[in-house]
Amino acid sequence: MIRLDKFLSEASPYSRRDVRGLVKRGAVSVNGVSAKAPDMKVNENQDVICVNGEHIIYRKFIYLMMNKPQGYLSATEDDRDPVVIDLLPEEYRHFSPFPVGRLDKDTEGLLLLTNDGQFDHELMSPRKNLFKRYYAELDKPAVEEDITSFASGMEFKEFTAKPARLEIDPDDPRKVFVEIAEGKYHQVKRMCERVGKTVIFLKRVAIGPLQLDGTLAAGQVRELTQEEYALLMSK
Ligand code: URA
Predict the structure, then answer these.
(1) How many C-alpha atoms does 153 have within 13 Å on its Cβ side?
(2) CA 138/CA 199 separation, integer angstroms
(3) 139 annotated active-site
(4) What would you report as the CA-atom Rg of the chain, rounded to the nearest whole angstrom?
(5) Dihedral, 194, 136, 78, 218 alpha carbons, nearest 10
(6) pLDDT of residue 10
(7) What is the mean pLDDT of residues 16-21?
(8) What is the C-alpha separation between 15 and 13, in angstroms, rounded?
(9) With the CA atoms of 201, 203, 208 and 209 taken in that order, what torsion angle do they form, in degrees rounded to the nearest 10?
(10) Average of pLDDT values for 211-227?
(11) What's the 184 CA to ligand 1 centre distance in angstroms?
């Protein structure tokens, strides 16, 4: 059992203060009966709670997939630059989601956001060994030897990259797919630099078994389906 105002502040865009006003106006009902006080106890899994007739389903956590556009930081706030949270529709903001891992400001594509610390922790854990797949465009054509260099692992100042996969588009070898196991700072760009190529465009297209939804325009988000959530958690 939890307090009605806590329930609504977690499960709806209304703040606790809003709830006080709504209750006073008789806009909140519990099992069809007008709520008398914001601190009344409700059963979050059983009681039917409505605000202005709209049934509010309780949930604590949110899991979002975003097609991140360029120009946004993977952060919750910043003094100078726009952040991915600025792109979220109002309905998701009260969950206070944060990005799971980071994409560079000029990188596009699949970014997950959640307010579930455990989910974040799981996905970021090196033990999970989730490959991230990127589409990249290079300033020069990639060559066969680059595939071997990527597959051999690379030494960097602060880490050794595990074997990574490089696939070259046979029709245009400036276009490649890269799969990496880690996700260190500028990792794909640094690995490409190591073989003498500069990344001029970068987009993440998959995290482990989860593909970026191709129908999401840049800047759009949607919730993960239960199947997608289960897929990520099962790996
Ligand atoms: N590697 C990079 O270089 N940049 C990203 O944003 C992600 C992976």
Answers:
(1) 8
(2) 5
(3) no
(4) 22
(5) 180
(6) 87
(7) 96
(8) 7
(9) -130
(10) 97
(11) 8
